[in-house]
Specification:
homodimer, Isopropylmalate Dehydrogenase, 11-stranded mixed sheet
Chain lengths: ~350, ~350
C-alpha cells in the first residue's frame, strides 16, 4: 500500500520534544494506513529514540535533519529571519515545497504563525492567520476562532474568521450549515464595541453563512453555536480564564475529598467518575488548534501535550488533509470576494 | 442606639423584586445594628410583604413610594430620561440628596450605570463608572475590574480602574498593597494590543500602585493578583465564559453521577462535598458588584439573586460605607492628578 499523503512533524517542538512527538507519530502511523510522516529534528536524537521503539526502518517514516530549535520565548519575527535551519522552519518549508501536505508543531505559537505566513503565504483575501480550536459542550464540542493569533481585529477580519471557520467545520465536522455566533457582552443589537456591531452587519449580509447573531461568554460552553467568532485577544483570554477556573475546580475537588478519612474513601470510590469527567471537560485537553488562512495546513499542539494529545493533533492534520480544507476555504473566499467586488 | 447610616434599596429591581429584596433587607438589619434601610418601591406591594414578615413598623426601616420600574431590557439612556419616578431613580436620588449613603439594586445594569452617572455625577478625573466584583481563587478571592461597564477602554481608563480598584481593596479587604495585574494574552512585554501595552507603561510609573505586570486569563482564578484590570468587554466575556464552563461541569457531574444505580448511591454519599464545592466555586455566587468612580456608593446585585445573595450585596454596600470608599478614591485620584499635572 502506498502512502498517499505526508505530514511534516516539528519533532523538536514543545516542552518534551522527540520524547513525545516520536511515539505520538508512531501511534498516528498505526491508525492511518495512508499516512506518511516526515520527522524534522536533530537527526541523532531522533534516531536514538526511534531505535528505542525499534522503528528505525519504518517504511512510512522519513527523517529530515535540522540544526536548531525555535525557543518557546523567541521573538517570532527574529525566529523567521534567524532560524532557517530550525525544525519548525524546515517542517513548514516541506509543505511549501509540496513534499508534505501539512505540518504539526508543539512549538512557539507566535513563531509558527509568523513563519507560516512567511513560508506558506496567505490565501488571497486573508490578512493574517487565525487560530481555531474545539471547546467542550454538553453534547459534544464547538469551535472558537480566533484564539490569540490576532489582536485588534477589524470587523472585516471577524468576517474572514467566520467564512474560514464555517468552511472548516463543514469539511472536518461534516456539519452542513454550521451555526456561527459572534462573541459579545450581550445578545441585544445595541451592545458591544464598534467592531462587533459592524461585524454583525457584515455577517448577516452573507447568504452562505448561517449567522445566528451575538452570543455571550456563557454560550460558548453551552453549545449555542458551532463556531464562536471573536477577536484573538478576547478569545485567548476567555479560553484561558475558563481553563483557569477548571483547574481551580479540580484542585478544590482534590482538597475537598482529602479532608478526612471518610472523604478519602469516598474519593476512591468516585475516582473513575472523576477521571472520566476530567477527560471530557478540560478545555486544554482537546488538542490540535488549526491555523487557518494559510496556503497550507498547519496544526498547533499545546506545548505541554503528552503522547496522546500530540497524536490527536496529528489526527486533526490528517482530517484537514483528507478534506482539503485550505482549497475549500480558498474557493469560498473567492466567491465572497467576487460578490463584494460586484456589489461595489 | 441611633442608626448611623442609611442604605437605599431598589426594592423592585431584579427577577424577583420585593419577594427577595425585603427579606434580604431584614436579614441585613439584623446583622448590622447601625444600619438603617430605605426601601424604594410600590408602597402597597412593599407593605404587603413587610406585613407577612410582621415587620411593618421596623424602627430602622423606611418606605419611599415609586410609581414605575426600570425594565431589565430598557435602554439605559431612555430610562434616565423617562423613569424619574422609578424605584431605581429614586433610590439613587436619595444618595445624591444625602438622605442615604449607598444604593443597592438588582435591576438593569446599564440603566443603573447611566442613571448613577447622571444623578450622582462622576468623581473628578474619572470618565465613566466601572464595575468590579470578586471571583473565587484557591485560597480566597480576587477582584476583576472592569466587568462590562466600559467597552473600548483606553490605556488611561485602565489606569483609572487600577487606581480605583486598588483603593477599594485597601479599604474593603484591608490589603495594604493590593497586587494589581493587567489582563493580557501573554506575560511578555511584547504581547497584547496597543491599549494594554501603553497601560502597562502608565501603571508601572505609579509609585502608589503595586503593579505586578501582565497576567494571563488563567491567572485570574489562580489568585496571582488581588486585582485584575481589564477592558470591560474582555472582563465581561472572560467572567461569563468561566461561568459557562462551571455550569457545564456541574451538569456533566450530574449526568455522570446518575448513569447507573451504583453511581446514584455514590452521589448521595458525595452530596455534601459537592454542595460545599458548588458554594465555594460558582463565580456567579459571590454577589455584590461595585460601581466605582461615582460620587456615591452603588452596589449591583445579580438580577437572579436569591435572599442570601441579595443580602450579601447589602453587606458589600455596608463595608463601602463604613470604609468611605468614594472619598478615599477621590483623595487618591487627586494626588495622581496633581502629580500628572506637575510633571507636564
Amino acid at each position: 500500500m502506498t502512502a498517499q499523503y505526508c505530514i511534516a512533524i516539528d519533532a523538536m517542538g514543545g516542552d518534551f520534544g522527540p520524547r513525545v512527538t516520536i511515539p505520538a507519530a508512531l501511534d498516528a502511523l498505526k491508525r492511518h494506513p495512508f499516512l506518511k510522516i516526515l520527522l524534522v529534528g536533530q537527526q541523532q536524537q531522533l534516531q536514538l529514540i526511534l531505535k528505542r521503539h525499534n522503528q528505525l526502518d519504518h517504511p512510512r517514516l522519513e527523517l529530515l535533519h535540522s540544526e536548531s530549535v525555535v525557543a518557546m520565548d523567541e521573538r517570532p519575527a527574529l525566529a523567521l529571519r534567524r532560524r532557517k535551519d530550525s525544525s519548525m522552519y524546515l517542517a513548514l518549508q516541506s509543505v511549501a515545497d509540496g513534499r508534505c501536505q501539512a505540518c504539526v508543531s508543539a512549538g512557539n505559537t507566535g513563531a509558527l504563525m509568523v513563519m507560516g505566513r512567511g513560508i506558506l503565504q496567505m490565501l488571497p483575501g486573508i490578512d493574517r492567520p487565525a487560530i481555531t480550536s474545539a471547546v467542550p459542550t454538553l453534547h459534544g464540542h464547538s469551535y472558537m476562532l480566533d484564539l490569540g493569533a490576532n489582536v485588534d481585529c477589524s470587523a472585516e477580519h471577524l468576517l474572514q474568521f467566520a467564512i474560514m471557520g464555517s468552511v472548516m467545520l463543514k469539511a472536518v465536522e461534516q456539519i452542513a450549515l454550521p451555526r456561527v455566533g459572534l462573541l459579545n457582552i450581550g445578545a441585544e443589537e445595541i451592545k458591544g464595541n464598534e467592531q462587533v456591531k459592524l461585524a454583525s452587519r457584515l455577517l448577516s449580509e452573507q447568504s452562505d453563512l448561517n449567522y445566528i447573531g451575538f452570543v455571550e461568554g456563557d454560550a460558548v460552553f453551552a453549545g449555542k453555536a458551532d463556531l464562536v467568532v471573536c477577536d484573538g485577544f478576547v478569545g485567548n483570554i476567555a479560553l484561558k480564564s475558563s481553563e483557569g477556573l477548571a483547574r481551580l475546580i479540580s484542585r478544590k475537588v482534590r482538597t475537598s475529598f482529602t479532608r478526612n478519612l471518610y472523604r478519602r474513601l469516598l474519593a476512591l470510590l468516585a475516582l473513575p467518575v472523576i477521571k472520566e469527567l476530567q477527560q471530557q471537560l478540560d478545555p486544554g485537553r482537546r488538542n490540535g488548534a488549526s491555523l487557518l488562512g494559510l496556503q497550507g495546513i498547519v496544526v498547533k499542539s499545546h506545548g505541554s501535550a503528552n503522547r496522546d494529545c500530540f497524536s490527536h493533533a496529528i489526527d486533526q492534520a490528517v482530517s484537514e488533509v483528507e478534506m482539503n480544507v485550505p482549497e475549500r476555504i480558498s474557493e469560498q473566499l473567492e466567491r465572497y470576494l467576487q460578490r463584494s467586488s460586484a456589489s461595489e
